[in-house]
Design brief:
The complex is a heterodimer of chains A (775) and B (107).
Chain A lengths: L1 E5 L1 H4 L1 H4 L2 H15 L3 E6 L8 H6 L2 E4 L10 E5 L19 E7 L3 H4 L1 H4 L3 H14 L4 E4 L2 H11 L15 H4 L19 E5 L8 H14 L5 E5 L4 H10 L10 E4 L4 H9 L3 E4 L8 H8 L4 E4 L2 H4 L8 E2 L4 H13 L1 H11 L8 H21 L9 E5 L8 H13 L4 E6 L12 E4 L3 H4 L5 E6 L6 H10 L1 E5 L5 H21 L5 H9 L10 H6 E6 L2 H11 L4 E2 L15 H11 L6 E6 L8 H13 L4 E8 L4 H10 L6 E4 L5 H10 L2 E4 L10 H8 L4 E4 H6 L6 E4 L5 H13 L8 H10 L2 H12 L11
Chain B lengths: L2 H23 L6 H17 L4 E3 L5 H12 L30 E3 L2
Parallel strand pairs in B: 1-2
Helix pairs in contact in B: 2-3
The chains are: A alpha/beta (775), B mainly alpha (107).
């Protein structure tokens, strides 16, 4: 049995060490002992769960996604009312997933004025209540909680299994008869009554204190009231004032601050009685703890207590001070009555050993699982996935890449694209274009929701959605500095850097990294990596960098050829025809550098290399095939200064697809350089390889793309003389020097989108069945 | 349904709208708890295949998109049993699921 467990309550310090956390941990352990494979689903923003929780799980994943989409699984909601209900929304209402909730109580619903005073708390609780309706199996901790489920939500009884809560080990160990030997606490004040609770209104220590005051009116030396639990000083003063007089040398009330379980057992054991006066409980651990220690227990007459204390004489109305005082009079005055109560309660805690509770949990879950499996199996549908990405006509390389990827995915799965592009390119490959927003991550019908991230302004909302919901992520860039800077501002970028580096960062440092990305000390990928399951990158070097920085190994899928060319298209005759159309002088050697011109692509080094070739007498020209914008003038001036005026062509305008392809095919050689490293990619270099264009690239970039022999590698310091030397060596070999048709064809085949799509679906755990009939 | 939830459903949309509009103008994300409850209610309606979901015009584009997106998924298939029909935000669904899941906007 595969169990997908929401373990946020075990990450959250507010719950992990309290009642919910200890019961949730027991549920996990019990199911793991029964042989279930438990995958812990986490919120990356919360602390990591304890080692014990990690041991119970075969894997811990960020976000709420299926590790085996479409396969049978049980979703275990360990704390349905406490954490953001949107996170697991996509796992619910799926035919293959059986949802099961552990339920503790509905106290906030019954007392909204006390527990749901803030509007946000009320709305959150109401949302959690609605989601309970999506659950198929319920594991309430008490029969009274089960009654609430049946009455409040109309849940059929056969879907409810009461489990109880287990004693902690220190108390369970006393069930063998060891309670008699528990030593009396050294600070115990003569005869005393014990109250174990906390400052919460519903624990109702006030009634106990008032009852003790009634006793004090009739006795010169009434028993001390010992109160265990954290109480602020002002409340302590009120309790002392309400509890009546003490005796010489002893106050009426003794507060215990921090006691461990062994000490608490002593306090239970030697008390005249333990009093639990709660106005509301889902279960009551102090009741069974006291019973395990052999203390007579008096409890308020509420449903959760009636299950544990059958004797009406041991129960009292939680608001009836006189009634409680009368019961306490009897119990404190009569040893025989205390013995009678203890004898009547002795067997109760045996129902709540870890083994007994674990058995009930396993039995309920396994029975539900068998019933589910016995039903007609869920029909297999053609899977659907959502892709959150820019999309053409967005002017983004990632948008183009996604368009190609979607075409290759479409034969296998339905694809919905979520983008901010209001007029996204219509293509049969996309089932539906949707406005980018959280809906994709809150629906139950996608086998996977893939966030596509790159280092540009198109990815701001995708970054937010990915880090909030987690799940599969395709990362196109080796750093996200520009994206963080654009989306979160300089301060946001600085905070991200400080979080990753663990130190203060100055604005000057930040500016230096922006101008010189190769000096970045971190990748700014921490939160993206933490939320990703799985993370897909296109460069082995980037996968290495991420593993060394963050300890997580991404999946490497080789970057695809986006503009495949046939052998005929790159043949000499076809290329000559294009050169003639473009007016390239006969004998002229054309070198291109493709893509939007940016300082990160070292255009100065390209110009200097061409200038060096001109000085050597080569009939060569350089074309930047991409908009240079404001840099155009400076680049032309540089060419003039180096004696290459008229041999360097810079465009002020956007270069369209047709012109881009023309120069890609017409050129003799290419230069594609990157100043930043970390295994960054270049779609333009892939275009050069796909077109068979011999190209000079720096080592980091070439390695990232597994570049073939048609790419000459120069050092990452980007020395112009090295670039010139590489080009000159090819020029010296004559026409078509450096071209290799076999290498081009092999690279194109191995980096095709259909191969990528198959790899991606496999990575997402989506079985690639037969292609769509219509495809 | 508990009384507090009934009143909550009745009260939900107006304060939701009023909270969201200024928030959007400030460039902030929609109120987290508002969105959380809205998602829960829409998904619960889809599950029930029941009553219509009406969100006022003034709820704004973010919630409009969210509800449309959720409705586009259609009702969930029953466990082990294919649902009779699947709806979209703009079209009624066929079979056992009524017009309830149709997107409607208040005047």
């Amino acid at each position: 049995m595969l169990i997908l467990a929401d373990i946020r309550a075990l990450q959250d310090p507010l719950h992990a060490r309290r009642g919910i956390g200890s019961h949730a941990a027991l549920v996990l352990e019990a199911l793991a002992e029964g042989g279930a494979r438990i995958v812990g689903l986490t919120d990356p923003a919360l602390p990591q769960p304890s080692a014990g929780v990690r041991r119970a799980c075969v894997a811990i994943r960020p976000g709420f996604t299926e590790p085996e989409p479409g396969g049978p699984a049980l979703f275990l909601q360990l704390s349905p009312m406490t954490h953001d209900t949107r996170a697991p929304a996509r796992l619910l209402d799926r035919p293959n997933i059986l949802p099961c909730a552990v339920v503790y109580d509905f106290i906030p619903r019954d007392h909204p004025a006390r527990y749901l005073r803030r509007r946000s708390d009320l709305l959150h609780y109401a949302a959690a209540w609605q989601w309970l309706g999506a659950m198929r199996v319920f594991l309430p901790i008490s029969a009274s909680c089960a009654d609430d489920l049946a009455a409040g939500l109309g849940i059929p009884r056969e879907r409810i299994a009461v489990t109880g809560v287990s004693l902690r080990p220190a108390f369970e160990a006393l069930l063998g008869g060891d309670a008699a030997g528990i030593p009396r606490p050294a600070s115990a004040p003569g005869e005393y009554l014990l109250f174990v609770g906390g400052a919460d209104w519903r624990k109702n220590v006030e009634t106990v204190a008032a009852a003790r005051a009634r006793m004090a009116e009739r006795h010169a030396a009434p028993a001390t009231l010992v109160v265990a639990g954290g109480y602020p000083e002002r409340q302590r003063q009120r309790i002392r004032a309400a509890a009546g007089h003490g005796v010489p040398g002893r106050e009426a009330v003794l507060f215990l601050d921090h006691v461990n379980d062994a000490e608490l057992a002593g306090w239970y054991r030697h008390a005249l009685a333990t009093v639990t006066a709660s106005r509301a409980e889902g279960f009551s651990l102090p009741v069974i703890e006291a019973m395990a220690c052999g203390s007579p227990v008096l409890v308020s007459d509420i449903p959760a207590h009636r299950e544990l204390v059958a004797d009406p004489a041991a129960r009292f109305d939680p608001d009836d001070v006189d009634g409680l005082a009368a019961r306490l009079e009897t119990v404190t005055a009569s040893a025989a009555e205390r013995v009678r109560i203890v004898a009547g309660q002795a067997e109760v805690p045996r129902r709540f050993t870890a083994a007994a509770v674990g058995r009930r949990i396993r039995s309920a879950v396994e029975a539900a699982w068998r019933r589910q499996r016995g039903d007609r199996p869920a029909p297999r549908r053609r899977p659907a996935i959502a892709v959150l990405s820019p999309f053409p006509p967005d002017r983004s390389g990632v948008a183009d890449y996604t368009a190609g990827m979607v075409e290759a995915l479409a034969p296998h799965v339905d694809v919905d694209v979520y983008s901010e592009q209001p007029a996204a390119l219509a293509t049969p490959a996309v089932r539906r274009h949707c406005a980018l927003g959280p809906a994709a991550l809150l629906r139950s019908d996608y086998a996977a929701v893939v966030a596509v991230l790159g280092n540009s302004r198109f990815h701001g909302r995708i970054l937010d959605l990915h880090t909030r919901h987690g799940g599969p992520c395709i990362l196109h860039d080796s750093r996200l500095t520009d994206l963080y800077g654009w989306w979160h501002g300089t301060d946001g970028l600085r905070h991200r850097a400080e979080a990753e580096l663990g130190r203060r960062i100055t604005r000057r440092e930040l500016a230096g990294w922006t101008d010189h990305p190769h000096t970045l000390p971190t990748l700014f990928l921490g939160e993206v990596v933490a939320a990703a399951a799985p993370l897909v990158v296109h460069s082995r070097a980037l996968a290495d960098s991420i593993e060394s920085h963050y300890g997580t190994r991404p999946v490497h899928l080789p970057f695809c050829v986006q503009r495949p060319f046939s052998a005929a298209a790159v043949a000499p005759a076809a290329r000559q025809a294009i050169r003639a159309r473009l007016g390239v002088p006969r004998g002229r050697i054309v070198v291109v550098s493709l893509g939007i011109v940016s300082p990160l692509k070292a255009p100065e080094a390209c110009i200097d290399a061409i200038a060096a070739l001109v000085r050597r007498g080569r009939d060569v020209e350089l074309r930047f095939v991409g908009r240079a914008g404001r840099q155009a003038r400076a680049l032309r001036a540089r060419a003039a200064r180096h004696g290459a005026a008229g041999r360097v062509h810079v465009s002020d305008e956007w270069v369209g697809e047709a012109e881009y392809r023309d120069w890609l095919l017409a050129a003799d050689y290419g230069i594609q350089l990157r100043t930043h490293r970390f295994g960054g990619l270049s779609g333009a270099l892939v275009d050069c390889v796909a077109a068979g264009l011999p190209t000079v690239a720096n080592e980091d970039l070439a390695a990232a793309l597994d570049a073939p022999v048609t790419v000459a590698r120069v050092g990452d310091e980007l020395a112009p003389e090295s670039v010139a030397a590489a080009l000159d060596a090819w020029i010296a070999t004559g026409v078509d020097g450096g071209r290799d048709e076999a290498a081009r064809a092999t690279y194109t085949r191995e980096h095709a989108f259909d191969r990528y799509a198959t790899g991606l679906l496999e990575t997402l755990g989506i079985a690639v069945a037969g292609a769509r009939a219509a495809a | 349904m508990p009384r507090f939830l009934k009143s909550l459903e009745r009260l939900l949309l107006r304060p939701l709208v009023h909270r969201l509009r200024p928030a959007r103008h400030r460039g902030a994300a929609p109120g987290s708890a508002d969105e959380e409850l809205l998602v829960a209610l829409v998904r619960a309606e889809l599950r029930r295949g029941g009553a219509a979901i009406t969100v006022p015009e003034a709820a704004g584009r973010d919630l409009d998109g969210l509800v449309r997106g959720l409705l586009a998924a259609g009702p969930p298939p029953a466990h082990g049993i294919e649902a009779a029909g699947r709806g979209t935000a703009d079209e009624p669904v066929a079979g056992s699921v009524g017009p309830a899941t149709r997107w409607r906007r208040a005047a």
